[in-house]
Amino acid sequence: MITGEDLIAAAATIGSMPQAALSQRLGQLEEERRRRSGIAAVRQSAELDSLDLDEAAYQLARQHHADGNLAAAARWYRAAAANDYADAALLLGNVLEQLAEKYLTGPSTRASVRDELSLVTEAARWYIEAYGAGHLEAAERVDPMIARHDPNRVRPVPAEPPPHGREPEPAACEDGGLQAVLEESELEAAVRHFRDCVACQQELISHGGLLPTIRPSPPLDSVTALPLGIRHCVISGGCHG
Amino acid sequence: MSGNTERDSQGRGCQARLSLVSFPSFYQQYYPVLVRYLISQAHGTRFAEDVAQETMLAAREKWEDLLTYERPDAWLFKIAIRMLRRWEYKVRQECSYDGDGDGTVGDVGVAAATDDWVNQHVDIVTGIRSLPRRQAEVIALHYLADYTITDTAEILGISAGSAKTHLHRALDHLKRLEGIPAVSASAEMRDAS
């Protein structure tokens, strides 16, 4: 066993080191400093500055956490926890668990199940990391969390598809619909109209992509007036030769 | 609980400022404590020595700024601890995690072979290495580097309450360690021989 008194006794001599060893290491340090290039010095300076970023990320996460913005808190805790800063891993696990909680009562879709499992998996990972750092309570959170978020549990089914999922109804055709346009317009005008009129395009689709046949057939004299028989093909819904 | 919880941190601040007469005097005062603190924390002794020297090099580079700091020694430990955490986190991601610390015991022998203080306190260094990271940091900063709980919490970026919790857990763990004789018993054996 080791007691506090043993540690205090060890601390009494921790600052003593032979002068020769100290001088040798100090000499090595000065030599290393002289040998370092400008780029190496800048790199070291940048690395030192980046150490402060861990603390900044952690403080930002604490602020978002206090404000209830869990998604932003998770983002910044993640940055701090990635460098093992303070208790960021424990707090990140906690925030991710809270984010996963909302899926317990909400309607279930394939995407929501995937998101929930992703959050729980990441929360468990950070709880384990926090346990390894010495936060013993983190281990007690993992099993209950996984049990609560069992993917095979009974879930509420969404009552109706969301209203924004439907296509809005197009405005009605100003010229009376596809049939009326074909009957009353010249071919080029009808084509121009069809290009811009969503209602007529949908009507065409509802006919399986074929234009409706106009019945009764037009009089012989008007058919002969058609350029190259194209109008016949269009109006009858197919060309027979 | 130890008696150094209430130690005057202002006194340590004055001591640190006195060492700022020159970089060599600062180095000679803090390098031994820093490197031994890091040896008690790191997975590898070489790792600890590299971080200690790298931190001292950083202190040398920004010596002019350091002269204006209230607690240059606290800055030194803060930088060294964060640097070590980053390096070790990378190692943990690349290797399988050694949670119980047994893998570090053999390496203590390497440190003991080159450092008399480690050699005389192998049991303590091994015991601290067997602790979870945060507990090891708190107990070594508080007892070995002689920082108050408040200063320890400040260096680690945690609350004082959290630091106390880690300290209690670490002490409990060390008291329950088996197979590592108490320091006093070891000292008696050494005296007898």
Protein topology:
The complex is a heterodimer of chains A (241) and B (193).
Chain A: H1 4-11, H2 19-35, H3 38-67, H4 70-81, H5 88-105, H6 110-133, H7 137-148, H8 178-184, H9 187-196, H10 198-206, H11 220-224, H12 230-236
Chain B: H1 9-18, H2 23-39, H3 45-61, H4 63-66, H5 72-94, H6 105-114, H7 116-120, H8 122-129, H9 133-144, H10 149-156, H11 160-175, H12 183-192
Helix pairs in contact in B: 2-3, 3-5, 6-8, 9-10, 9-11, 10-11
Quick structural gist:
The complex is a heterodimer of chains A (241) and B (193). With 241 residues, chain A is an all-alpha fold.
Question: What labels would you give this structure?
Answer:
heterodimer, A: 241 residues, mainly alpha, Serine Threonine Protein Phosphatase 5, Tetratricopeptide repeat, 12 helices, 66% helix, disordered C terminus, B: 193 residues, Butyryl-CoA Dehydrogenase, subunit A, domain 3, 73% helix, disordered N terminus
Give an overview in words.
The complex is a heterodimer of chains A (241) and B (193). Chain A has 241 residues and is mainly α. Chain A has helices at 4-11, 19-35, 38-67, 70-81, 88-105, 110-133, 137-148, 178-184, 187-196, 198-206, 220-224, 230-236. Among the domains of chain A are: 50-152, Tetratricopeptide repeat domain (Serine Threonine Protein Phosphatase 5, Tetratricopeptide repeat); 178-236, no CATH class. The relative contact order of chain A is 0.05. Chain B is built from twelve helices and no strands.
